[in-house]
Amino acid sequence: MSTRIAFLKGHGTENDFVIVPDPENALDLPPAAAAALCDRRAGIGGDGLLHVVRSAAHPEAAHMAAEAEWFMDYRNGDGSVAEMCGNGVRVFARYLQRAGHAVEGDLAVATRGGVKTVHLAKNGDVTVGMGRALLPEGDVEVSVGERSWPARNVNMGNPHAVAFVADLDHAGDLYTAPPFRPATAYPDGVNVEFVVDRGPRHVAMRVHERGSGETRSCGTGACAVAVATARRDGVDPAVTGTPVTYTVDVPGGTLVITEHPDGEIEMTGPAVIVAEGEFDAEWLEGVLS
Ligand SMILES: N[C@@H](CCC[C@H](N)C(=O)O)C(=O)O
């Protein structure tokens, strides 16, 4: 009789995740295991893995245990670790609600980017306090084929390069990471967003994510895009004292981003659990051997 491990599948604006509940951090999930689970042909399939662990049971999160019971141990589709995943933390909260670990209202979740407050609303939307954006100085150029654009550095805990383009098709097939200059700009890699205007305080984007490739949505990316667009539009809530809200269309839906005068950014969108099942521990052991 083989050993079975429970998993769920969920998405936020079609940024999809394999969710593995492991409260006591008992599973061995090295990068190759995360990549195998996220593999769309030989595994379950997802842009990333949400490993659900009690903060107290994880060495990277124990210091946050007093503030947040649960730690989102997020991995990209290639198994690499990232500081933060905005859609992931909303789906993570939805899982906690489904499992009976959270109810409608506010919930603290520990992440590698610190403790985030997530609000599970009655209407099904999930809002997360994403913290403040940093806008490191430095000229960066992103290119696709013959075209290139200046890109704005925005750090949402993880790195983003935001390029305003005339047409989202100019980003090409995004099968590979768009090259940037200077080549040394992002020693740890970068998520690249391509943005077009849709209307007043309304944009659309495509993204190539570090460690996952092109995805249908990226929450930290949408926040980076909202902040970069606001600054391009000459809007800074810290100066005006008034919050500003941008609607960001992604291929998988729509996210609403509000930046407050103190710099705090909130992101709202849907988060859905679509399936629940079990995989064979032996399959994963076989993949790893
Ligand atoms: N899809 C995520 C971002 C995941 C991490 C990213 N690929 C990175 O490596 O920084 C989101 O919704 O924010």
UniProtKB/TrEMBL annotation:
The UniProt catalytic activity note for this protein reads:
(2S,6S)-2,6-diaminopimelate = meso-2,6-diaminopimelate
State its location(s): Cytoplasm
State the UniProt keywords alphabetically: Amino-acid biosynthesis, Cytoplasm, Isomerase, Lysine biosynthesis
Please tell me whether the keyword Isomerase is annotated for this protein: yes
Q: Which residues bind substrate?
A: 15, 76, 86-87, 158, 191, 209-210, 219-220
Tagged with keyword Oxidoreductase: no
**Gene3D superfamilies on file:** Diaminopimelate Epimerase, Chain A, domain 1
Q: How does it assemble?
A: Homodimer.
For this entry, the protein name equals Diaminopimelate epimerase
